[in-house]
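We were asked to recover a plausible sequence for a given structure. The inputs and outputs are reproduced exactly as logged, with field labels preserved.

PROBLEM: sequence recovery
POSITIONS: 285
GIVEN STRUCTURE:
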């Protein structure tokens, strides 16, 4: 079952990246997202054919993500998804007209190395869904607050391309908050459907709504690859840290394994960080 969870995480990465690229094409064709007019902005986005397609594709990726969280530790799932960011390269170049340079291809190699280290050090013993309420509450409240505050100064101000990546970063933090909440629910809901009535469900919904608008606005004003990569980095770092601090995901059973696992996490995050390198985007039709 553990191996199936890793496979689901890879499928989530691939499908989610394609969904992101579709949403970018739809976002730039839609009217400006305005945080003060959430309903009008939402309707405008979904009137854009490519945004709707992207959301449908991303929903398929989300289903695989939830399945992966139910079968494997969240830190491993998110590291695999982070490394899977390099799966963005082929569809970005082949279907969406982006050109990736040497920096991005170095990222591919780092990601492959990191995923290989994770494969040889990962332990399938447990999905690690247990947690204590106090650390979970503190972690979610602090990160949700940080994500919301990152949006506030730019919610009404004139934004530039530089602000686009900041919106992506804020959206990624909020997605990470939602992922940690989903991990908690994945450990209880299958055995008790009523446990979906939980503060973690509310946290996941609020964080997801804020992330929806943050990433949509980021894709409108920022470079698509940069926004996608930074949101992925932020989401996965938040979720990996949450896995270790909240769910007690082990870093390894010995010194060699701990070092190898740490290097794996560092490699996949570094690979994701390299992806917003110099990219020449084709003009969107």
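RECOVERED SEQUENCE:
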């Amino acid at each position: 079952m553990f191996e199936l969870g890793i496979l689901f995480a890879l499928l989530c990465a691939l499908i989610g990246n394609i969904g992101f690229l579709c949403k970018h094409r739809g976002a730039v064709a839609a009217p400006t997202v305005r945080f003060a007019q959430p309903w009008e902005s939402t309707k405008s986005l979904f009137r854009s054919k490519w945004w709707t397609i992207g959301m449908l594709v991303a929903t398929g990726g989300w289903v695989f993500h939830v399945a992966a969280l139910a079968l494997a530790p969240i830190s491993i799932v998110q590291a695999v998804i982070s490394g899977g960011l390099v799966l963005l390269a082929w569809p970005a170049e082949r279907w969406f007209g982006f050109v990736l340079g040497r920096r991005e291809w170095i990222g591919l190699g780092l990601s492959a190395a990191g995923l290989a280290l994770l494969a040889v050090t990962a332990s399938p013993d447990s999905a690690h869904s247990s947690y204590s309420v106090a650390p979970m509450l503190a972690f979610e409240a602090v990160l949700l607050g940080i994500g919301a505050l990152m949006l506030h100064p730019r919610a009404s101000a004139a934004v530039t391309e530089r602000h686009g990546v900041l919106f992506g970063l804020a959206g990624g933090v909020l997605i990470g908050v939602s992922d940690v909440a989903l991990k908690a629910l994945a450990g209880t809901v299958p055995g008790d459907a009523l446990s979906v009535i939980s503060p973690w469900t509310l946290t996941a919904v609020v964080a997801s709504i804020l992330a929806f608008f943050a990433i949509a606005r980021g894709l409108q004003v920022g470079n698509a690859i940069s926004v996608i990569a930074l949101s992925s980095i932020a989401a996965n770092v938040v979720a990996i840290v949450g896995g270790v601090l909240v769910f007690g995901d082990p870093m390894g059973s010995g010194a060699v394994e701990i070092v190898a696992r740490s290097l794996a996490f560092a490699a996949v995050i570094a690979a994701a960080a390299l992806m917003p390198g110099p990219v020449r985007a084709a003009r969107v039709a």
